[in-house]
Amino acid sequence: MIRADAAHRVQRLPMSRRKLPDRTSESVEDFLKAIFHLQRQTDRVSTTALADALNISAPAVTVMAQRLVDDGTVDYVKYRGVRLTDAGKRVALKMLRRHRLIEAYLVEDLGYQLHEVHDEAEALEHTVSDRFVEAIARKLGNPPYDPHGDPIPNRDGLMPQRDLQPLSQLSTRLPARIRRFIMDDPLMLQETQKRGLVLGVALEVLARDEFDGPLEVRLQPGSQQIVGFKMASQILVEPVA
How many CA atoms within 13 Å lie on the side-chain side of 29? Predict the structure, then answer.
């Protein structure tokens, strides 16, 4: 749902003229995108891990994987798991581009807060046209990163690379800037923004407790925050000279 300040009348089209969402296609796209994300940690993704990520049963994952083998987008080996073929990776990157551009549009042009955009983008990425997505890209100046700091694939599927590290691992007194949030919890994400832990802000760790304890962090131009280890481990920073 896209916000509006006033209600608009929607002209209802006859059923034969309305384009309804293809739930089968949507499931396939989500399946391939989930494999792409999980393959960052391992060459093959277990059906159990994929089932957990998609909140479906392991047998359902197996059925879908076997179907997508026939489509040429997935390589599946029983007891060893799945991985994307080149064709499957292209689909996943296309969906990732859609999702992240939509998130950027929601934040920059429609006034959404960072913690609000993920679910909206999940719904919209399956329904908007390629033309609409590319119009967003042009309007926003082809941004390389989305509002979370996640890289946006270009039309060729290439993504910018940065050498980032978790705030929890940043050396004491080493200046850095926040470049990316990798947390899934919208409440935690909202809390980072309230505290001024936003993309691009300069900071340094003043002190840290041992054994994964909280960090004392100084933000520029001078405010200080106590940041829990869990939150700090999901904020990626880039050291600066």
Answer: 20
- What count of other Cβ atoms lies within 10 Å of the Cβ of residue 119? 11
Quote the domain boundaries for residue 223: 165-239
Query: Average pLDDT of each block of 10 consecutive residues along the chain (241 residues)?
Result: 35 37 76 96 95 96 96 96 97 98 98 97 95 98 98 97 97 97 96 96 94 93 92 98 75
Q: How many domains does the chain have?
A: 2
Q: Do residues 83 and 50 lie in contact, with contact meaning Cβ atoms separated by under 8 Å?
A: no
- 204, 206, 215: which is closest to 238 by C-alpha? 204
Q: Is residue 210 part of a domain?
A: yes
Domain boundary residue, one of 84, 108, 137 = 84
Long-range residue pairs from 155-161, CB within 8 A, at least 24 positions apart, any chain: 155/97, 157/89, 157/90, 157/93, 157/94
Looking at 84, 117, 132, which one is the last position of a domain? 84
Residues in contact with 11: Cβ distance below 8 Å, sequence separation at least 6, in sequence order: none
One-letter identity of residue 3: R
| Whole-angstrom distance, CA of residue 75 vs CA of residue 72 | 8
Q: Is the pTM of this model over 0.90?
A: no
Residue 102: which residues within 8 A CB-CB, separation 6 or more?
Answer: 117, 120, 121, 124, 125, 128, 133, 136
Give the Cα-Cα-Cα angle 76, 69, 55 (nearest 5 degrees).
65
On whether the CB atoms of residues 144 and 152 are closer than 8 A, the answer is yes
